[in-house]
Each structure stands twice: as C-alpha cells, then as structure tokens.
Design brief:
The structure holds two protein chains of two kinds.
Chain A (H helix, E strand, L loop, with lengths): L26 H4 L17 H14 L20 H7 L2 H4 L11 H18 L3 E3 L5 H19 L6 E5 L5 H8 L3 E5 L9 H7 L4 E7 L11 H10 L3 E5 L12 H4 L3 E3 L2 H4 L14 E3 L11 E5 L2 E5 L16 H37 L15 E4 L9 H10 L6 E2 L8 E4 L7 H20 L1 H6 L11 H6 L11
Parallel strand pairs in A: 2-3, 2-4, 4-5, 5-6
Antiparallel strand pairs in A: 1-7, 6-7, 8-9, 10-12, 11-12
Chain B lengths: L19 E2 L4 E6 L2 E6 L1 H7 L2 E5 L6 E2 L4 E7 L3 E5 L4 E6 L2 H4 L3 H4 L8 E5 L11 H8 L3
The chains are: A alpha/beta, B alpha+beta.
C-alpha cells in the first residue's frame, strides 16, 4: 500500500477556481519577497476521486469498533454513539477559532464549565481541569501537581512514588518524567495491594502512590480506604488512574476513596473515539489541597458571563495549547447528557455484568488465575491450553474469526495474560458468539495447533515480524520530505 | 528482573555453577569485589525476543535494589535491579546494536553490567545454581 505522496499523477487537480472578478495581482505585490516560497509545496497532485479511493482503501484495512467486537482490556473500546459526532460538527463548535474573543465563544465556554461540573460530580472531588489530552498526559499533569504541592510545603525530600506491580505501564513513566523515582509494591495472592508491603515502603521520602481502581486484573481494591489512609498518614498523596472508571460510575467516587488526583479518559469511559492515536482527552480532578495548582486557563462564571482566568499565580501553568482537545469534550458532554446519572450508573452495571458473564463461561476453557467476581474486565491465561501454543497464537487466530484480539501479555503478574473487557455496549448475542469463538480456538489449539501458528490467514496481512518491526523499522517516507 | 517475572514458574535449565542467582532472575559472577551481572536463561526465555537494552552510565553509584538497566522485549519491559550496592565500572555496549545476544547467550556474551561492589554481604541473599533451578521449577 503506497502513501498518498507516492500516488503521484501529474496535472490532476481537485477543483477548478472561477475566473477572478477583481484585477489579478502578482504574489510579489501582496507578500514581502522575503516571505514568498521559492520551492513548490510538496503536495500530492491528485483528483478528488483518487483521494477518496485512497482513504477508503486504507479504512478497509483497519478494524475499529464499528467493524466488530473489540474486547481490548484496559482500553474500554465501547461503541461511540453517532449523536456525539453530530454535536461535535455543529458549526458553532467546529468553526470556532481558539483565539476568538470570549464574548463570541460563550457557548463553548459554557460547555466546558458545565462538563467540568459533571466530571466533578462523577469524581466526587473539588475541581477539574479539561486540559490534558490523554490519560498519560493527565498522569503527568497530576505528578506535576504532586511536585508543586511538596515544593510549596518545603518537603523536598519526597521523591518516591509507590506503584503496585499491576500498575499501568504509563504510571511509572509519568512519575519518572516528572522527576520522581518509582518503588514497586507487590500485590498479595488475591491480586490486591499487599498492605504489609505498603507499610514497609512508606516513609517520609514518599510523595505518594499511583493506583488503578479497580486494578488491571479487573479486581476492586477492597482495602482501598486503608491504602489511602496509610498513604495520607505518611504525608503522601494518592493518584487514581481513571482508565477503569467504566466499572463504577454512580456507584462510588474516587473522592470518597481518598483520591487527591484522578484522571478521566473521556475517550474510554465517555465514548469518544480512540484507538488510532487520538485525539484523546484526559481531564484531571483534584482534592481541595491541589485546586490552586491546576493548569491555566480556568473557565469561570462571573456576572452571568463565562471567562477564561489566567490569573492563577500558584498554577503549574499550561500543559497543552489552548484548552485541550475541545471537540472531544463536546462529544463527552453529549454522551453524559444522553445518559444522565441513572444511565451512567447502568453503563457501569452492564459493563460489570458483561465481564462476569464472559468470565464465568470462559473459565471452563481457559485458565483464570484470579478467580472471583470481577469488575469490568478479567484476565485469563493462555498457559497450559495446549502444547507449544502461546497467547500470541490465540490472539492472532481470533483475527481470523473477525474479532479484535484482547490485550495480551498484560498485566505482567499473569503469565501469558489475555485481558478481556467486553464493555456495556455489546449484546448477549455478541458475547455468546465471542465465547464460542474462544472455545473453537481452544479446540483448534489442541487438535490442529498449526492453524494457530499460521494465523492470521484471513486478514489483509499475515503475521508480522514484530521483532524486526521493533528493531529495524523501515521508514517509507523520509521526514525531510525528499 | 522485576515485574514481568514475579511469581513465574518455568522449566529447569542448566546454569553455570560458579554464578550466584537472585529471585529477580539475574545472575552474578563475582571476581574479588567485581560483579558481572546479567539476566538468566529463564528470564530471557520468558521475555521473548529482546529488542532494546538501556544501560547505565559508567561511574553510576547504585544501591542494592536500584534499577541499573532496562531490558525490553516484544512482550514486556523488565527492570534489572542491582543485586548489591556499588559503582558501575563496565557496561556491555555491544548490546546496544545486538540486544538479541541476551537471548542467544544470556550467561556469557549477554552480560549487562560490571559492578564494583562496596558491600559484599549484600549478595548473601543470592542462591547457588541448584537452589535457583529449584526456584524456577517451582520446587
């Protein structure tokens, strides 16, 4: 498949301009010579049908949640309602320039203000910033807030962040990027944080802990109140990774569990599109102690006018240009309005029900290392299914049956992990069909393992050499434009 | 090696008998106060194809348990923890262009770091080859 720059076809244009109805002016009369381009722009010369066909062809090679079941654990690949899209393309939103005067962007500011309020309510926390544009970006902003908090208090020795061994890979990266060192805390035999190990790790060099609730095994941290109490008692702060919010909206709130910073993944929980690298949105909610440090600008309502407040002297500053990914916020706002508080609670109830339904059926065929009620996702193991069969083989075979493979080899605490998150938007029929496919693949693994080793055979490409892709990537279009 | 290996059980393999081994699946070859450190055959087998190794700077001082190197495979990223306190005096920079050496020769050519150990007692909790073999086979 060639890139659009390679489908050159000279002297084609996408449209014809009408004749000028004003006198023609040479470009040198309109623009200072120093700023006039001397080399032509490197743009593909293509007609409109060629462009449309190129991108349609690319889209057919892709697999998204509109194509089929996408049980990618930890990623909450729920269906994205098309009404969200309709709202985001309203010209008052999509045509709004970020530098528009606030007097002409009151509607957008109102939406940001009200969404902030909704998210504050869902999190049960003091205030929210919509600015971070990804979950990991929220984490990084949160770590900056931690840092600021201890700087202000003069507690410069607090340099360590504690992380459970089931933590998301981005957590240690975010902590390290903000200048903290990371100490791993083991989980116990039930997959939850080991309180004794936590006690041992806590001292006055600890800035805080980063937790994912429920954790990446899909298990609720039933000792969560003790965990946050211990960290607070030791003078630390608690960061809650919100990737798994889909399991408890309207049931409990991070604020009630002792969170000081919590990030939302609007592109997961609030059904805005993701999977192709964005655009995402990772708003952060904070406890009272951290409100003054939130990124600028803040949206305020004063005298019935919305305004952007840059005058926040204790703020950590901006973490993104303008206001984050605003149109993603529009989609999330539409989603929350469609469902209301009762609907959001039902989202979580059905997400948990679907996961438990699948877990109960699949544990008869696949190993389930942590058996028990799960939240919105669960982790099977491909180990021991059949001689010589790896989880990678199972995942690749699922592609042949039109299913996007689950997350594999994560979390690290489960060998040959297969992490399944069905989400609430799938019907019982879809769940049953997926379970049936998993059972067929298990049977094939035993009876005809070569089928799995060769998979995928029905996809647009066969199995890719991921080692070579990681070690020797071949850049097809050099970045210098030549 | 942290994270990925915790609680893993594998097949028994042959390990050099003059090395010491850690519960984090690292080996230590001690000559005087100089320790050569690598990851075990078991660890490399569990990781799969190794595609990147991040090495420390020579001269770095480390405490026992500190992360001294990172080994990245197609499946996972594993931290190499220092089995003792000391100073990094050598690194296997051939791994930067050929990280797969850890897969093909984990106990010799795939060594990662040379450490000048300041506290040899820090290595007291390591195992001999027989004990490590029992450890990985789950005995």
């Amino acid at each position: 498949m060639s890139t659009i720059f390679d489908c050159r076809c000279s002297e084609k244009v996408g449209g014809l301009f009408p004749e000028l109805d004003v006198p023609a002016q040479g470009v040198e009369r309109l623009i200072d010579a120093a700023h006039v381009r001397t080399q032509p722009l490197r743009l593909p010369d293509l007609s409109e049908p060629q462009v449309a066909r190129h991108y349609t062809k690319l889209s057919k090679l892709n697999f998204g949640v509109d194509d089929g079941f996408y049980p990618l654990g930890s990623c909450t690949m729920k269906y994205n309602p098309k009404l969200n899209e309709a709202m985001a393309v309203l010209p008052g939103f999509s045509g709004l320039h970020p530098r528009s005067d606030v007097s002409r962007s009151q509607g957008a500011l109102q939406l940001m203000f009200e969404l902030t309020g909704f998210l504050r309510g869902i999190a049960g926390m003091a205030d929210v910033s919509l600015q971070p544009v990804a979950g990991a970006h929220g984490e990084l902003a949160g770590m900056f807030l931690f840092k600021k908090y201890f700087q202000v208090r003069g507690e410069h020795e607090r340099k360590r962040i504690l992380l459970p061994d089931t933590a998301h890979g981005t957590n240690p990266a975010s902590a390290a990027l903000a200048g903290f060192s990371v100490t791993e805390v083991a989980s116990d035999e039930t997959g939850r944080i080991d309180l004794a190990a936590l006690d041992e790790a806590l001292d006055d060099t600890v800035a805080g802990i980063m937790l994912t609730v429920p954790n990446t095994l899909g298990i609720f941290e039933s000792d969560i109140l003790q965990v946050t109490e211990k960290v607070h008692a030791a003078g630390g702060l608690c960061y809650f990774d919100g990737a798994n919010l889909n399991s408890y909206m309207g049931k409990t709130r991070p604020g009630d569990m002792g969170a000081d910073v919590f990030h939302f993944n609007l592109h997961k929980t609030m059904s805005t599109p993701h999977g192709g690298g964005g655009p995402g949105s990772g708003p952060i909610a904070v406890s009272d102690a951290l409100v003054d440090y939130l990124p600028v600008p803040r949206v305020r309502l004063e005298n019935e006018q919305y305004k952007l407040d840059w005058n926040c002297p204790h703020s950590i500053g901006s973490v993104h240009s303008f206001y984050g990914n605003f149109l993603v916020a529009v989609r999330a706002f539409a989603y929350i309005l469609q469902l209301g508080d009762v609907g959001l609670r039902e989202v979580s109830e059905n997400a948990v029900l679907n996961a438990n339904y699948l877990q109960q059926r699949l544990k008869k065929t696949y190993a389930l290392p942590y058996d028990g009620l799960c939240k919105h996702e669960f982790v099977l193991s491909g180990k021991g299914l059949a001689e010589g069969i790896s989880t990678l083989d199972i995942a690749k075979r699922l592609i042949d049956y039109g299913v996007h493979p689950p997350t594999i080899y994560f979390p690290l605490t489960v060998k040959e992990a297969i992490m399944i998150e069905p989400t609430e938007t799938e019907s019982k029929a879809t769940l049953d069909r997926f379970a049936e496919i998993m059972e067929i693949v298990a049977r094939e693994a035993k009876e005809n393992p070569q089928l799995l080793h060769d998979a995928p055979v029905r996809a647009s490409v066969r199995r890719l050499d991921q080692t070579q892709a990681a070690k020797n990537p071949v850049l097809k279009v050099p970045l210098d434009g030549e | 090696m942290g994270g990925f290996f915790n609680g893993l059980k594998g097949e028994a393999m042959a390990y050099p008998t003059d090395y010491r081994y850690t519960k984090d699946h690292e080996w230590v070859q001690l000559k005087g106060n100089r320790a050569r450190i690598g990851i075990t055959d078991h660890a490399q087998a569990e990781l799969g194809d190794i595609v990147f190794v991040e090495l420390p700077a020579i001269g770095t001082s480390v405490n026992k348990g500190d992360n001294i190197a990172t080994v990245e495979s197609v499946k996972a990223v594993g931290d190499v923890f220092s089995p003792a306190s000391g100073k990094v005096v050598g690194i296997n920079d051939a791994l930067e262009s050929a990280p797969e050496t850890i897969n093909s020769a984990p106990h010799v050519g795939g060594w990662i770091v040379d450490l000048e150990v300041v506290d040899l007692a820090g290595l007291d909790d390591t195992m001999d080859a027989a004990a490590y073999e029992s450890f990985v086979s789950g005995a």
